[in-house]
Amino acid sequence: GGPIAFHGAHQAGIATPVQDRLHFASFDLGLDDPKKVAELMRRWTAAAERMTTGQEVGTGATGAELAPPDDTGEALDLPASRLTLTVGFGPTFFEKLKLPAPDRLKELPHFPADKLDPARSGGDICVQACADDPQVAVHAVRNLARIAFGAASVRWSQLGFGKTSSTTPEAQTPRNLMGFKDGTRNIAGSDRAALDAHVWVGQEGPEWLRGGSYLVARRIRMHIETWDRTSLKEQEDIFGRTKREGAPYGAAREHDPVPLDKLPADAHVRLAHPDSLGGVTILRRGYSFTDGSDNLGRLEAGLFFLAYQRDPEKGFIPIQRALAARDPLNEYIQHVGSGIWACPGGVRQGSFWGEALF
Ligand code: HEM
Q1: Is the CB of residue 72 less than 8 Å from the CB of residue 61?
Q2: Which of 56, 110, 249, 305 is positioned for an S-S bond with 286, CB 3.0–4.6 A?
Q3: Spans of the chain below 50 pLDDT
Q4: Would you say 82 and 131 are in contact if contact means Cβ atoms under 8 Å apart?
Q5: Other C-beta atoms lying within 10 Å of the C-beta of residue 222
Q6: Residue among 108, 177, 185, 237 to mutate when testing ligand 1 (max atoms within 8 A of CB)
Q7: Nearest residue to 319 (alpha-carbon basis) of 285, 265, 282, 344
Q8: What is the ipTM, given to two decimal places?
């Protein structure tokens, strides 16, 4: 497809169609002057406007012979590949800059069985780069990191290679590394009523955050080898959906409504379904990852879970509380990284990321 518009009422990369690849980066600030951070956001926005339309950053990869090029060059000749860049600010961002944090931006509570690695968690600023070509996503993060030199540096980053969610229900639902269709019952990017109700921050938020969203990221390791020794029946019971079709128990087709009482009482889909949790709903946008193998020869693989919501207390937090307590999937997964950020509303032409905040 053609480029995805960078400007608009909402940041691209949330409700827009999910691309094939992810490079997610968490940055820490090296300074505490909001004016300098505003300047960084202005420069980042200018670079993002160019990269998301397939143009080179600044004066380009071959602008001046005697200076390091403004653009690192590895995306030359590649199309924009539907690149989107989405930015968010974490609780520590507001502490460092002594700016008022939005009410709903609080560090996540500890959930049972969390085994979070601080080196893969948190961060003052997050950048979610999604594109259909991994080289384009990596190029984007690399060039933003380069621009940030002296102001912010990468704390951790995560590559993702296969989408495990969809905002386009008419398209084939992708599968996660457990082999199940993932993202069947997600918010469609065209469902404005659901997005307004569950994803976009409204009048309750500060001006800069209206039309924005809260992002929760979780690096979830999968114990793939144990999963692969589990019977098909048990695998299907765990989700309450069939593997090939993705149909909920008690129904024939993938997109049939979920007859909750036909699913095992602790099935993942039953526990996470809005009807089990008083209407709680998130927009999922996660990716599979495989970072090679660990020193025991096991795949270092899993799901880099990304969820957008209007209020984490009516989104990720109650769902994860229910799942952490009862989900039989817990035997096969472990949450090892975590972060939460407030993603500002969309960027208008001539403005920059989070301008109204500074
Ligand atoms: C549904 C897999 C973690 C929330 C599903 C489905 C699968 C799945 C296969 C059914 C298809 C669908 O409707 O998308 C996984 C795996 C996970 C994981 C493999 C971990 C590695 C999580 C987490 C949350 C979550 C951490 C939120 C805290 C949901 C929700 C649904 C869902 C809200 C839709 C329920 C419905 O409305 O029917 N998941 N999931 N999942 N999952 Fe997960």
Answers
A1: yes
A2: 305
A3: none
A4: yes
A5: 23
A6: 185
A7: 282
A8: 0.99
